[in-house]
User: Fold these one by one.
Assistant:
Number 1:
Amino acid sequence: MMTRREFFRFFLMGGIFSLLSKKVKAEQPLKKAMFWRRIE
Amino acid sequence: MSKKVQCELCPNECVLENNQVSYCRARMNKNGTLYSRVYGKPCAVHVDPIEKKPFFHFLPKTTAFSIATAGCVLRCKFCQNWQISQAGPDEVDSRDLPPDSVVRNAIWYGCKSISYTYTEPTVFYEYMYDTAVIAKKYGIKNTMHTCGYMKPKPLKTLSKYMDAANVDLKSFSDDFYVRICSGRLKPVLDSLIILKQENVWLEITNLVIPTLNDNMKEIREMSRWILKNLGPDVPIHFSRFFPQYKLKNLPPTPLETLTEARKAAMEIGLRFVYVGNIRHEGENTSCYKCGKVLIERVGFFVKQNNVSKEKCRFCGTAISGVWS
């Protein structure tokens, strides 16, 4: 049987993880274009 | 060392200083390297009937997984999708959908093709190209609705993976292209010829705008050019204009103008001439030999299809298109 304290610890950890997961969403690196040239 | 670059994708040939964004809003020079700002970030994702593109001779009654990103190489005053085409990627809601996910979604939704459409696919060239390569591996066909404003080299590279293209031939007047679209006519005509040479199934859309490009002399001239350079089997869609964007002062195209344009193009010798954006018998495909209705359409919906094994079911005449 889960105690009230264990339940709240589990609940709190879940909340923290879900908040973190939103913040660490990776940005896609920019894609290099295919047709272009450098002008010297 | 200079950090200036020149884009070689479309005839605008933007020369960009460091941190400068291209005319189409979809490319950017960062420290002397040109990057796409829209790769894998579509702002429009839909499953559409292929007839909506419009493709009338390409896998009728199937659906196309359709995507677009923000941006355009032209500035058409009549643009029907100006909210996304005349905006940069930072001004629209877009989602992350990398090329493999596009193909996975297309398969999941039972689409026979992926369509690069709504805005101008040239601006998301790299995204379109990578998606098309993967789609081909999985037996999904690729189609695009384009203004044809692309340079020959990228167009030829793309054509290896593109099964069909619907090109907007907005007018047969260079002056119209300059004044109304901020472009030129010749690159579009060149693209049409390249697509034909590369065996990409080709259809043409001409939006008929009252007072601007509804001159029958010009429509005849355009039809003659199509017949001479692309052949009689290239379908052409005369589409009805509705007041939009910067041309709200003009009325919708009268039905008589569309039927007159259709009649003129058929008299020149084009075999498959349609009217669009309006319910009309000119939405149907008829056999050019026996005259019987082959594909009966109501809007985007196919009511009956009498093309069997690429031929007219009634008289056996071969009907050009991609039917399976």
Number 2:
Amino acid sequence: MLELQNLYFQVPSDTGATKEIIHDLSLTFDDHTFIAITGPNGGGKSTLAKLIMGIEKPTSGKILFNGQDITDLSITERANLGISFAFQQPVRFKGIKVKDLIALAAGKDVKNPNTCDYLSKVGLCARDYINRDIDASLSGGELKRIEIASIIARNTPLSVFDEPEAGIDLWSFNNLIKVFEEMHEGSDNSLIIISHQERILNIADEIVVVADGTVKARGRKDDILPELLKGTEGCRFYQ
Amino acid sequence: MDAIQKNLLEQVAGLHEMPSGAYNIRANGQSVARSTSAHIDIVTKEDKQGIDIIIKPGTKNESVHIPVELSQSGLTDIVYNDFYGGDDCNVTIIAGCGIHNGGDKDSKHDGIHSFFIGKNSHVKYVEKHYGSGDGKGERIMNPETVVELGENSFMEMETVQIKGVDSTKRKTSAKLADGAKLVVTEKLMTHGSQYAETSFHVDLDGEGSSANVISRSVARDDSKQFFFSKINGNNKCAGHSECDGIIMDNAKISALPEITANHLEASLIHEAAIGKIAGEQITKLMTLGLTEEEAEAQIINGFLK
Ligand SMILES: Nc1ncnc2c1ncn2[C@@H]1O[C@H](COP(=O)(O)OP(=O)(O)OP(=O)(O)O)[C@@H](O)[C@H]1O
Ligand SMILES: [Mg+2]
């Protein structure tokens, strides 16, 4: 369903030279898969997610979605083709309410989106939240959960989550695992979840290790996890 | 009343028909309809244009509508409306001005509203400004609001001007007695080559008095806005002002806040933030399938709601 071909992403650095953040990265994702992406901080995971969503454009390389070349498509066009992205750091708005955001996410065709259901899935008591502004008054964890609820509401063929577990408390974390399992089992949609959490890596079909801007390893959890769990010191992926 | 006049009334006062309760409707410089209630009297001023609105002590849950509309091009209307509110009242006052200028001469309305509020009262004051018409003549409004709040009284003031006013200079001043509280929320949007200036002067004279002045504005095209605020803490009090502005295109916004603590127990805060719409906000809404223009409209709408 998604194919990344020889992606490079460079930005100008302070010294005037260019800095390479993604280096010759190629990956293919099949239909109806659940892939976890992990790797060290600064390895390029969020950048990769932004390249998929179109928030950043690659310096070179190609991105195909269901066979269509989407490299030059805008964020809006990709969203309408069926790609969703939950930000690592969700955005705050003055004057946009939780229910407004969920309604926008659910799309114009959904008359009465089941806002309450989406919110309770991520462990928020809907009544207390639907009329709140998505502004500085929400805690980090609340904001993160609303972000996840909005992606559930979108219900697109591909959803990319960037560290969804960050800032979420332990109790909700168990529910979150269930949410991802449901999303995966209950539909033909594909999931890409960027995570540092063993329990998320555990429920994925496959794990991809991204470091130094490229794919260091990919495989079933039984092959990848033991190596990762040795700790970064001896981990061959993190060299 | 013709269709244009009816539309103006609907825009500024949300009125489809004659309101219930006390009202005074002013059209093209004249009072055209009036009604009083058992507790609220409206009297025409003898020495100048305008009315006195007298609210008896103990008046509860009543409203007063005093909309003004100008549809005759080239008219300058200056009006003085004075509110005398007794103790222990709870009233809502809905004012507002609509100008339709289909001609080439400037139309101008200057409304000076003074509030003398007694003790333990709660007053909600809503004021909307609106302009329409495609004549070359400008639509000008210079509203002035003067507030004297008695002990433990609370006034909420909401002002909205989001369409069609070419030039506005808005002045609000308030003096607060012990325990009095003032909350002002202002929503402003300018476009084209419009100019808007708003200035607040609040004297927190009473012990335990507080004021919160919140201005949210959007300036687009070549429009310009100035925000001045001056809060003097003359007693143990709390004052907060906040100017939040979004600029687009070639627009300009200036904010000039002044806070002065004249008392050791005065606690005063000012916050101002002016800038374009945060790029990541647009990006986020685009990831939900909105176009850049739709995202922008959604953000502005929410911000001014
Ligand atoms: N626009 C940019 N300009 C300069 N450097 C950037 C830019 N975007 C990302 N980087 C750098 O690229 C590297 C990869 O960043 P990225 O956010 O993709 O990492 P990550 O794998 O998501 O890390 P984490 O696990 O901490 O979230 C980092 O060193 C980061 O500082
Ligand atoms: Mg990241």
